[in-house]
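User: I'm designing a mutation panel for P2X purinoceptor 2 and want to avoid disrupting the core. Could you give me a predicted structure to guide residue selection? Please restate the sequence first so the numbering is unambiguous.

Assistant: Good idea. Sequence first, for numbering, then the predicted structure tokens:
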Amino acid sequence: MKGIAVHGDEILDTVEYARPSEGGDVISTILRREFTYDQKQGTCAEYFDVTNANCSADSDCVQGEVDFDGHGRRTGRCVQYYNHTFKTCEIQTWCPIERFAAVQEPELVEAINFTIFIRNSIRFPKFKVLRGNIKDASNKRDMQKYLSKCHYHTDKEPYCPNFRLGYIATQARENFSELCRTGGVIGVFINWDCNLDIDPSNCKPTYSFRRLDLRKDQANSGYYFRQCCSYAVWVFSCRFAKYYNRNGVESRTLIKAYGIRLDVIVHGHAGKFSPIPTIISTVTAMTSVGICTIICDWIMLTFIDKNEVYSERKFDEVVKEPKEPVSTELSFINSFGSDHSDLSEGVPL
């Protein structure tokens, strides 16, 4: 990731916002931060929105109880909620609590012009082909000059690996200002679909972008992480926090950061014509529908010298025998009448 941003009186470079490092296939950038300054171990009022946190007497607070949505262990006392008139149960924790004392910074809207450098290569060992998503150059100097100026474009610059954050958000159909406020996870899908019957130089990647977190589920949408830090060193997990001493008291600054996480996901498929798989596939398809049997019979009966022998073995000849006439009672009566009463000769009855 590359880019410079002016944030108030501060100049933020890549080291400030390109974090945390989460692996070779993940890129993260900070777009908004919330600070809870000068936290110390002690006792303070629980946040009023926590279940059963509001109270009117000490009897309403159970000593030693730890609420799952709360910020610490209850002491059993009912105290005033900071500078408000109502009361909540007192807890032992890092004070002041984050939900009361957090200070929000404005969104880093200039990050829309930050660029992401995504370098990817794919290898098809069966065809001994290796392809990359960076345009080949005659020398290293020309390559660096090209990469320092180009930005990815589907038609004009398909081999440029530099992507603007604003372009990624637009392609994912997301509002960049909203992503700065809530954070989000976007998948960068690189698809290699190569026809190796033609020159391998025509094997180019295609990119698509889609949001991966649940946008409609407010509890699970967005992307944020917490870090504890001293004034000079940032650490991205409270388990590895570095603290500072002020007047002999251990203190810390808690930072909750919102940002965009890019998950790079690569798919690859390549094919090349080969006669043997083609023949096997064709024969298999023909066998499945019974065409092979018909073709084999036609060849044997047409082109083989001993086709009569094959025909006798293959087919059974059926001979129809002539049927004998069957005499009936009606035919007997007709013959008897013709012998004794021939009306055509005029013999009287």
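For picking mutation sites, this is relevant: The chain has three domains: 5-38+100-215+233-271, 47-96, 275-312. Residues 47-96 form one domain.
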